[in-house]
User: Fold this.
Amino acid sequence: MERWRVSNKCSDKTYWKRWPRNYDLRRPYQVFLLECQLISRSTTNRVIAAAVFVAFVAPIVWVSEDTIGSSEGATFVVLEEGHTVSAAYWFHGIDIYVVLLPLFAFLFGYGTIASERDDGTLTVLGSLPVTRFDIYIGKALARILVFSGIIFVGVLAGLFGIFVTNPMMASPYGHLLASVPTVLFGTALVSIAIAVSSLLSSRLHALSGAIVGYFGLVFGAVWTLGSAPLAIVGHPFHGYSTVIATLFDTMYPSLEVALSSGSQSPDTLLLFVTGPVAILVLFAWICGPLAIGYLGFRREVILS
Assistant:
């Protein structure tokens, strides 16, 4: 064991020279399993999971109210002409998700690394035959997959609620298709929280960073939309909203009309306001923070 510890000190320096050759996936998988156990034992994480579930069930109430009085078997609901039931669900839900999902994701992910420092769990991991990369990727994947699973279960619950309240007008294909950008959006938010947790030294600092990051993300979107409309294309809120609006193109007014009041011309903005660009933005918000977080974590001193 002592011989391994000596070799592990230089393993990160030579890691990229020998990857993926002879890389053992069992090492990050061990960390992944340990992190999943820690997540399942946390009461806070259970409360967050319940809150996410409620957030995806809540729009059913508004959809049910909007469809009251519509004829049985009608193709569209009364909300507005051209709105399907699924469109009505996401029309109401997206305003909830862009406000609450960042809060839930930041609270779920801020302790990924920082809490381990305070609790001494990193020291335990340092005694295992794993590298810093194994620790980071295993813990990050556990947080991302668990939170994504919570979101997907919430979407399924919303779909089930739509079937119960409007069995003749439900659209399962479109509803499930909208879960893909929603999961990507949640993954991007958790990735930001993991990066904050990696870069800050303690649980309290990480919690403060998560709170500041949440308000910065929410109010930054409002400020950017008002002062620099073209820059809003790079915001995760806008990327998520654009993909959802692409799936349900009757949800919102014409983008050309909505953007005509900005400082940029509608034609210039519409070159960037597309589904593929929005998906690339979401992937950038996933990969960028994770990479930055690892660059900070690779200098972590882990006593074994």
Observations:
- Residues 1-10, 68-82, 251-268 have pLDDT under 50 and may be disordered.
